[in-house]
Design brief:
235 residues; alpha/beta; Rossmann fold; Helicase, Ruva Protein, domain 3; 5-stranded parallel sheet; 5 strands; elongated
Length: 235
């Protein structure tokens, strides 16, 4: 049986549709929103590089569907030990979001379990939402029928926000909190702190609290000292 976590742990506050900055992914976001809210919407397969927002959209869909009264489950396959057992234990979901499909590639038992789950979901009228770092044809799946089933889904390639878009989001988020982020701060951060947007926004949360506690503006020296003290060195 899959573990049911408390809602507060299952649905992170930031991973909602209103916190997703679409950029070039507006069509994908609209399709996922439709799947979360409509029982007859096409099944969706999202693929993209790390930081493109795959997991964010899956969790956002689950949150929205749950708020609408639907039974939902989110299954991050890369974190599961016995993936085949977990997949076979999924029952009763009206919307099931399956993340990191590449984690089962080459595991014949898990691939067969997902194939059976796909067919059960079709028969039961459930909805499936998939995400991976590659297209179905690029995953190293050993089961051709599973690759075919996944390939029949509506597919979207997610593109990460570029640096200009991420800078604009950070500036807007900072301004909404009454924080002024100078270009010099952003230049230093983007040259030394290679993170996706979600991590950058979490960093902004922490910087906001630290600057308020210290009664200091967020400058390059403040940022450098904060990261050193937080034992979170730039990469």
């Amino acid at each position: 049986m899959t573990t049911q976590l408390p809602l507060a742990l299952r649905w992170p506050r930031r991973q909602r549709f209103e916190h997703f900055h679409a950029g070039a992914n507006a069509a994908a976001v609209a399709a996922v929103q439709a799947l979360a809210g409509e029982t007859d919407a096409p099944w969706i397969y999202l693929h993209g590089a790390p930081g493109s927002g795959r997991s964010h959209l899956l969790v956002a869909a689950c949150q929205a569907a749950h708020a609408a009264g639907r039974v939902v489950q989110y299954l991050p396959l890369s974190t599961l030990g016995d993936k085949a057992t977990a997949l076979r234990g999924v029952v009763g979901s009206e919307l099931l979001a399956l993340d990191d499909l590449g984690a089962i590639a080459g595991d014949r038992d898990a691939e067969h379990a997902l194939f059976d789950l796909y067919n059960r979901a079709k028969a039961d009228g459930s909805a499936l939402l998939f995400a991976a770092d590659a297209t179905p044809s690029q995953l190293e799946l050993t089961l051709p029928d599973l690759r075919s089933r996944l390939g029949a889904c509506t597919q979207f390639a997610l593109k990460p926000l570029d640096d200009d878009e991420r800078r604009a989001v950070l500036k807007a988020q900072a301004t909404s909190r009454g924080i002024q982020l100078d270009d010099s701060v952003l230049d230093w951060l983007f040259s030394r702190y290679a993170r996706d947007l979600g991590a950058l926004l979490e960093l902004l949360d922490r910087l906001d609290q630290a600057s308020l506690a210290a009664q200091r503006r967020i400058t390059v020296p403040f940022l450098r000292d904060f990261l050193r003290q937080a034992d979170d060195p730039p990469t």
